[in-house]
Amino acid sequence: MKDGNHTMSQTKTILRALAGETLPTPPIWMMRQAGRYLPEYRATRAQAGDFLSLCYNPELAAEVTLQPIRRYGFDAAILFADILLLPQALGADLWFVTGEGPRLSTITQAADFDRLKPVDEIDAVLNPIYETVRILRQELPPETTLIGFAGAPWTVATYMIAGRGTPDQGPAHALKAENQALFEVLLARITAGTIEYLSKQIEAGAEVVKIFDSWAGSLKGEDFQKYAVAPAREITQALKARHPEIPVIGFPREAGDGYIGFAKATGVDCVALDNSVSAEWAAAHVQVDGCVQGNLASSHMVTGGQALVDEAKAIVQAFSGGPHIFNLGHGITPDADPDNVQRMIDAVRGQ
Ligand code: 1CP
User: Is the pTM of this model over 0.70?
Assistant: First the structure.
């Protein structure tokens, strides 16, 4: 398997960029590339019944992962799953309210934490996800890299504490302030679970893993170091000890100045950037340390036009002096036009 990965790393463009190579054309994939903007995704989701049934059905989850690869020929496929499956495997109740989003049981006191399951029990729930990875490694074209993923501990904790998505992560900040010991044991449990979950994805065939810290931007100063940088470092170091050849992408979304030095401080091979930082700034301050990923505003996938083409080309140009993987700054939204995705790819690949 190591030899297999090594051979592949010579040919797969994403692995070459992650190894630090500056390529004439950046490889490209897109956050949420399997999603509701695609009619074929909506059809398969309807066939599965609901979102969670889709996540836990290996054949259908593999099918929706492959759909954007067939349609667009992206350089990477991202496993179809969700960051909230780990909380569910740790014993949280999880359900999705149509048109609103996820709902979970909440964690506000020690008794809630004590009901969670130990990390060595998560596979009972997550085994179908590893099966999806195995199917994908067989079915993906040889040039396409398979990316596994998990949420970062802080971001996952914000959902486990509040029981839902929140605009300002208020309940998680409140628990951190009022019961730091409970907040920190929760973070430690999620961190340990994430290491297991990502290791199993790698053993099943994931070639790269990405850690999504979607709410890192609300951690300021010392909190950013303690709850975004330190857990990312712990996860990355543990994965590298077990699977030294597997690159890790970190995404401390909206970290701003926190992007500077993030790769060195955590050991990740690539820093994914949201579009609140300019590509010129990020080239000067982040790409100097290695590969970056990003960072076209996902709104261009809705609005299209010449602005989309100009901005995509400007980003390619700004990052052309170092290793770069082209992506959006955040996930594509359900109202996006699938034709704009093709326009972006053509602009990046120079067609
Ligand atoms: O109705 C549907 O079909 C559900 C929409 C959807 C999809 C397509 C959700 C619900 N999750 C997903 C898949 C998903 N989620 C992937 C699959 C691979 C791909 O990118 O194609 C990935 C990587 C995620 C990651 C994820 N889930 C994040 C981190 C990235 C980000 O967007 O910031 C987060 C925060 C979640 C939680 C979540 N899951 C779904 C929703 C709507 C949300 C956000 C909830 C909220 O904050 O209100």
Answer: yes
